[in-house]
UniProtKB/TrEMBL annotation:
Belongs to the iron/ascorbate-dependent oxidoreductase family. The keyword Transport does not apply. Residues 203-303 form the Fe2OG dioxygenase domain. Pfam families: 2OG-FeII_Oxy, DIOX_N. Keywords: Iron, Metal-binding, Oxidoreductase, Vitamin C. This is Fe2OG dioxygenase domain-containing protein. InterPro entries: DIOX_N (IPR026992), IPNS-like_FE2OG_OXY (IPR044861), IPNS-like_sf (IPR027443), Oxoglu/Fe-dep_dioxygenase_dom (IPR005123), Plant_2OG-oxidoreductases (IPR050295). PANTHER family: OXOGLUTARATE/IRON-DEPENDENT DIOXYGENASE. One of its GO terms (molecular function) is L-ascorbic acid binding. It comes from the Eukaryota.
Length: 353
């Protein structure tokens, strides 16, 4: 065991480490003590995750759409996340995307190495393990890749099916995200295209980010991704049959367990800034297990990199409020969030007005 622990800083992937026959406990570099006493009871109705039926947003009935818009006000203020169903993305495509990601992570380490790059989150694509090996105080029990799919579409070229599947999946998830953003705009009393136009979403950043969490011998002593918020506007997420995503609600951590054909949708930092704190960016984390590999695919959507995000003047006037946050270029915000000063901390503290 000591030999395995000594080698962990040199591992090229958590997959190869987890598959080591000598591994029977979590190496010290990965030691992260999870507090499981603050987890919500999944059977408690207080923690029943809201469901949004997307078919009602596109319904020809104005009353049905109006009802969902009103529901979104309460959901975005009190929860910051929901599960979207009847969104129009085929379940077969969602499964094909998970399978394609599994195919990539199953490639030999030396084949995946060529996709490694620097630590700029906006690069065309990047692959790695943990989060930022130069920054991490605790190494993470995960491998990942990120591919930028909008405004320009990039793709991994292997496995062979990846490009075709990821292009269709990215296009369809973008349609869902933009429909959600239009509905959120209306829920704020703004024009349907207000957020889209103000955030320059025609040039907005969309990423395809996949995470691979292999079985862990001591899941209570490791973490997939520690608590954090996302830096964009909204994120859509799917996962294979293994749960592990937890979101914070009313001081408790709630494990997300939604339908296989649903998208988990969470609000992110730029939405909180734009709404002057009315709608909250949700804190979430990824836990690991000792039973089977978990794969999650997150599709964050954000403004264009040069957009300066600040509380919407129309909302400030409507609510008779002063701005709580200073305006900041989206690219600069991302760089601030990714910096060492914000390791496992809130970026909002640095932009308070």
């Amino acid at each position: 065991m000591a030999q395995v622990a000594a080698q962990t800083m040199d591992v090229t992937s958590i997959k190869s480490l987890a598959e080591s026959p000598a591994l029977s406990s979590v190496p010290s570099a990965y030691a992260f003590n999870m507090n499981r006493n603050d987890e919500a009871d999944p059977n408690d109705p207080e923690f029943a995750i809201p469901i949004v039926d997307m078919s009602l947003l596109t319904s020809e009935s104005p009353d049905q759409r109006s009802k969902i818009i009103q529901d979104l006000v309460k959901i975005c203020q009190e929860w910051g996340f929901f599960i979207a169903i009847n969104h129009g993305v085929p379940e077969s495509l969602m499964k094909a995307m998970i399978d394609a990601c599994h195919g990539f992570f199953s490639l030999p380490d030396e084949e995946k190495e060529e996709f490694k790059s620097g630590n700029d989150v906006l690069e065309m694509f990047k692959y790695g393990t943990s989060y930022n090996l130069a920054l991490d105080k605790v190494l993470l029990w995960r491998d990942f890749f990120k591919v930028r799919v909008h405004p320009e579409f990039y793709s991994l070229y292997k496995p062979a099916c990846f490009s075709e599947v990821s292009m269709e999946f990215s296009k369809r998830t973008r349609e869902v995200a933009l429909e959600i953003i239009r509905a959120i705009s209306e829920s704020l009393g703004l024009e349907p295209n207000y957020i889209h136009d103000a955030m320059n979403m025609d040039r907005g950043i969309q990423m395809l980010a996949a995470n691979y969490y292999p079985p862990c011998p001591q899941p209570e002593h490791a973490i997939g991704i520690p608590h954090h918020t996302d830096h964009g506007l909204v994120t859509l997420l799917i996962q294979n049959e293994m749960n592990g995503l937890q979101v914070e609600h009313n001081g408790k951590w709630l494990t997300v367990n939604g339908p296989a054909n649903g998208f988990f949708v969470n609000l992110a930092d730029q939405m909180q800034i734009l709404t002057n704190g009315k709608y909250k960016s949700v804190m979430h984390r990824a836990t690991v297990n000792n039973k089977a590999t978990r794969i999650s695919i997150a599709v964050p959507h954000g403004p264009s990199v040069d957009t300066i995000i600040a509380p919407a003047p129309e909302l400030l006037e409507k609510e008779c409020q002063a701005p709580k946050y200073i305006g900041m270029n989206y690219k600069e915000y991302i760089q601030l969030q990714q910096s060492s000063k914000n390791y496992m901390k809130s970026t909002f503290d640095h932009i308070l007005a």
